[in-house]
Design brief:
By secondary structure, the protein is an alpha/beta fold. It is built from 7 helices and 5 strands; from the N terminus they run E-H-H-E-H-H-E-H-H-E-E-H. The protein has a 5-stranded parallel sheet.
Length: 134
């Protein structure tokens, strides 16, 4: 089985912590968007009163890289947004999903419907784990 590169949505870090630990043994490219990184640092620094290194250590332990939002992702976001009537409400999802706009990238999220614009390339954490466990 080919290991798909994966983009992890922010909700997975708070709702599926066992999946994040499982990712340590998943040997394909694993990223979060710089948008997700900012969202999660706000969560950990602001709500959980953690030092910024706390979240960085989670990423390091699970071997997850931060991918910057670049011109290509911005253009993909514009395409997704121009096809939607709800850009203002969903722009962060479009921005995060733009990192997975080309197959075989997969977005792992607990909010499947937020990434409707990616079609089949969106999975729940347990679906993704079960697919690659065996």
């Amino acid at each position: 089985m080919t290991l798909e590169p994966v983009v992890i949505d922010s909700c997975v870090f708070s709702q599926s912590t066992d999946f994040i630990y499982w990712l340590k043994g998943y040997h394909a490219t694993k990223i979060i968007s710089s948008i997700t990184y900012a969202e999660l640092q706000v969560y950990f620094i602001g709500k959980k009163k953690k030092d910024p290194t706390f979240f960085d250590s989670i990423l390091k332990r699970s071997r997850i890289d931060v991918q910057w939002f670049r011109k290509g992702e911005a253009l993909n976001t514009a395409y997704f947004g121009s096809a939607s009537a709800s850009f203002a409400e969903n722009f962060r999802d479009f921005m995060i999903g733009s990192h997975a706009s080309i197959a075989p990238w997969i977005v792992v999220t607990n909010n499947i419907r937020d990434f409707y614009f990616l079609g089949e390339r969106v999975m729940l954490p347990n679906e993704f784990k079960n697919k690659h466990d065996g």
